[in-house]
Amino acid sequence: MNNPANYLRLGALALLWGSSFLLIKLALAALAPTQIALTRIVLGALVLLALCAARGLRLSRDRAVWRHIAVAALLGSALPWVLFGIGEQTVDSGLTGVLNATTPLWTVLVGLLVSREAPPPARIGGLLLGFLGVMLIFAPWQGTSMLSWGVLACLGAAVSYGISYVYIARNLTGQHGLPPLALAAMQLTAATGYGVISLPIDGLRPVQWDLLAMGSVAVLGIFGTGLAFALNYRIISDEGATTASTVTYLMPIVSVLLGWLLLDEEIGLRVLLGMAVVLTGVLLTRRSPDPKTPAAPTNQEEEMSEATAVEERPTTEALPPVEEPKGWARFQLALLRGSQLYADLATNHPMK
Predict the structure, then answer these.
(1) Cβ(20)–Cβ(85) below 8 Å
(2) What's the predicted TM-score (pTM) here?
(3) Which of 139, 188, 281, 293 has the fewest beta carbons under 10 Å from its own?
(4) Is 71 exposed, middle or buried (0-12, 13-18, 19+ CB in 10 A)?
(5) What per-residue string of b and e applies to 189-218 under the rule 16 or more CB within 10 Å gives b?
(6) CB–CB of 183/348 below 8 Å?
(7) Residue ranges of the alpha helices (H) in the chain?
(8) Residues 246-288: pLDDT tens digits?
(9) pLDDT of amino acid 306
């Protein structure tokens, strides 16, 4: 990395976003899913608005932009955060993090459906492999399948994320002259309205004033939503979106470890293998197609090339061919290519 401090920022970002599922589980002891979502949205929005004010960034007043923001706020913030809260009432936090790791697959699938273009074989193979990993996690061939309403809610949240990322990429990113930080602040501001509207679902019940639960939702909103995105924004500014989005692969690992260490959650070998297959599928969806072989030059092009060969011949010896990366360098390159998924579609959104 250009700035070694960004290794620490990336680790902190993975911890903050990966721990969000643990914090939701703890907050459920005192709050309803809609109450958790609204509190998280409000606290995150306040943090981002404060950061925008400190940096002199202004929010757009364009109604067309706000219409797109309203859609992104529903699909990318309010709806998935409510669904994760509903799902975690019956689903372990570690498994929720694993299910969230399918988001890039849904993003690619929605993008392919919207573009209606013939995808490269590697991308199709990655999607198939990723969804086979999902099947491995659920194991429907066994008598006791893990598929439940809670799991479906978590998968619905991941699908909602995928749709929102494609929508944001097509209608907001780089089209209105607004920096990602301002777009994120606008998105959470709009999501506040959805959070209030969703309260009648289950959020009108009395709040249980449990200190751990209230502290968890406060950390989730201030750090896991507001400040975490500020970290992501800094990494993007210093290193580029591809490097910043490698956090996608660290989040499920963090969520599984925290659930196991702090909540005594059991994640079986089959689920871990399924998670590895899903992430491998995500990597394959980001493989670049082989470059096309250039067309053979015409006779006229060959004559022009021969006529100018003497003038263009370099006076120094040709450089040796660049060797393919090996070992750890090759693994890092593959990881960065795979993480480009969120870089293309979701870098202007506080993802988790």
Answers:
(1) no
(2) 0.78
(3) 293
(4) middle
(5) bbbbebbeebeeebbeeeeeeeeebbebbb
(6) yes
(7) 5-18, 20-27, 33-54, 63-73, 79-87, 93-100, 103-115, 121-138, 149-171, 180-202, 211-221, 228-239, 241-244, 247-263, 269-285, 299-307, 309-312, 327-338, 340-345
(8) 777 788 889 999 999 999 988 888 888 988 888 888 778 766 5
(9) 41
For 148, the token pair is 């439940």
DSSP 61-97: --HHHHHHHHHHHIIIIIHHHHHHHHHTTTS-HHHHH
Q: Token pair for residue 131?
A: 């969804």
CA distances 293 to 67, 289, 290, 296, 304, Å, are 44, 12, 9, 9, 21
Residue 190 to residue 183: CA distance in whole angstroms: 11
Residue-level pLDDT at 303: 40
Contact of 255 with 90, CB cutoff 8 Å: no
* Structural contact between residues 149 and 97, judged by C-beta atoms closer than 8 angstroms: no
Q: Name the token pair of 105.
A: 């697959």
What residue segments make up the domains of the chain, in order of their start?
5-289+325-345
- What is the rounded CA–CA span in Å between residue 2 and residue 352? 26
3-state secondary structure of 14: helix
Helix axes 269-285, 121-138, angle to 10 degrees: 170
Determine the Cα–Cα distance for residues 238 and 56; give it in Å rounded to an integer. Answer: 20
| Cβ count within 10 A of residue 143 | 6
137 and 275 Cβ atoms separated by less than 8 Å? yes
> Residue 349: what residue type?
H
